[in-house]
Amino acid sequence: MSALATRTGALNLGQGFPDEDGPAAVLDAARDAIAAGVNQYPPGIGAPVLRAAIADHQRRWYGLDVDPDREVLVTAGATEALAATILALVDTGDEVVTFEPWYDAYGALVARAGGVHRTVPLRFPDWRPDHDALRAAVTDRTRVILVNSPHNPTGAVLDADTLALVVELAARHDAIIVTDEVYEHLTFGVRHTPIATLPGAWERTVSISSGGKTFSTTGWKIGWVTGPAALVTSVLAVKQYLTYVNGAPFQPAIAVGLGLPDAFFADTASALRAKRDVLAAGLEAAGFAVSLPGAGYFVVADAAPLGYADGTELCRELPDRAGVVGVPVTAFVHPDRRAAYASLVRFAFCKRREVLDEAAERLTRLAAR
Ligand SMILES: *Cc1c(COP(=O)(O)O)cnc(C)c1O
């Protein structure tokens, strides 16, 4: 869809990357690090300054006590953290439970590890999982419950009851919880609760985050894993032969970002929330039914009220019809279960205000067809 946007000159609300730079202090710190010669292999577990900043961050925001030398691992983005974790934990035939739709890498990684992917559906517009369906999906065959909250593509923030049920089921069936929290700071009036803070969760949870979304540095690929030393060590054993190390000068820069004052995090979230509101209003004015996301970069809209039953077809036509690109939600579900998501389209709002205003204006052309 990004290629389609480039080819047609349409506004790219497909891929979730910001079109503005993040905080100057973070960018300057990377330039300074390069100038100061931080250009060779960093330590395998990550630069000490970043590991300390990650541990401080977990304490400051969530009251979690993390040992920066044994319970933190720096990775090439959340993507490598996910890959190394899945490859470390999942053997042939092991089951991995995720919600559906899911962030696209999950399905590919589980397949690559030889695992069996079980899913629990989230339904438009409130995306709250059915707890009986969750109970039914987790069994003694489950090796990993892979949770993503705030969630991509839906923008849902899992409620406390669902998180508690995940912990209860993981304990009952001796599964590991892997949690992808890359949108932890991009919430809109809802508080993010890391699942690792729940009673009984820490000892069986691998928590994953990244600087990419929080600091608008998606190209830097600085992510991290936190969790009990034994789990972190097994992830490190895989990372050792994936990338070995990554992003030397970007690591101290993300450390600077993690140490920014509370106001930075609050302002970033409220600026993004205002963008969400512009795009959501534009989609509604164009005739879509919108699920207002509680967090993240994306809004999911239903094209059925506009007379489109097939979101994929709409996404192919959107550049011509409205000069905008989106991604069909069916890209994030199993091919056999596309029907339930057929008319849904994901749009990114992590774009400049002018771009969103223009997109909202262009989308009204759809209503006029
Ligand atoms: C963007 C994203 C990632 C990838 O993070 P990187 O740090 O860029 O590798 C992982 N999970 C979710 C849910 C995402 O949206």
Question: In total, how many beta strands?
Answer: 13
The CATH architecture classification of the largest domain is 3-Layer(aba) Sandwich
The CATH topology of the largest domain is what? Answer: Aspartate Aminotransferase, domain 2
Low-confidence stretches: none
Structurally, the number of domains stands at: 2
Given this structure, which CATH class of the largest domain is correct? Alpha Beta
| Average pLDDT, all residues | 97
Percent of residues in helices: 40-55%
Strand content: 15-25%
The distinct bound ligands, ions and cofactors come out as: pyridoxal-5'-phosphate
Number of helices: 13
Radius of gyration of CA atoms, rounded to a whole number:
20 Å
Q: Strand-and-helix sequence, N→C?
A: HEHHEHEHEHEHEEHEHHHEEHEEEH
Terminus-to-terminus distance: 23 Å
Shape: globular
* SS-derived structural category: alpha/beta
At the fourth level of CATH, the homologous superfamily of the largest domain is Type I PLP-dependent aspartate aminotransferase-like (Major domain)
Largest sheet geometry: 7 strands, mixed
Structure explained in plain terms:
Keywords: Aminotransferase, Pyridoxal phosphate, Transferase. GO terms for molecular function: kynurenine-oxoglutarate transaminase activity; pyridoxal phosphate binding. The protein has 369 residues and is α/β, with parallel strands linked by helices. It has helices spanning 2-8, 24-35, 48-62, 77-89, 105-112, 131-137, 160-172, 211-214, 229-239, 250-258, 262-286, 311-322, 353-367, and strands spanning 11-12, 72-76, 95-100, 116-121, 142-148, 176-180, 205-210, 222-226, 289-291, 298-302, 324-325, 327-328, 344-348. It has 2 domains: 1-21 and 263-365, Aspartate Aminotransferase, domain 1 (Alpha-Beta Complex); 24-259, Type I PLP-dependent aspartate aminotransferase-like (Major domain) (Aspartate Aminotransferase, domain 2), CATH 3.40.640.10. The strands form 3 sheets. A 7-stranded mixed beta sheet has the order 2-8-7-6-5-3-4, sandwiched between helices. Strands 9-10-13-12 form a 4-stranded antiparallel beta sheet, with helices on one face. A two-stranded parallel sheet has the order 1-11. Helix 7 (160-172) links the parallel strand 5 and strand 6 (176-180). The longest helix has 25 residues, at 262-286. The two termini are 23 Å apart. The model has no long low-confidence stretch (mean pLDDT 97). Pyridoxal-5'-phosphate (PLP) binds at residues 77-79, 103, 148, 152, 180, 182, 210, 212-213, 218, 221, 223.
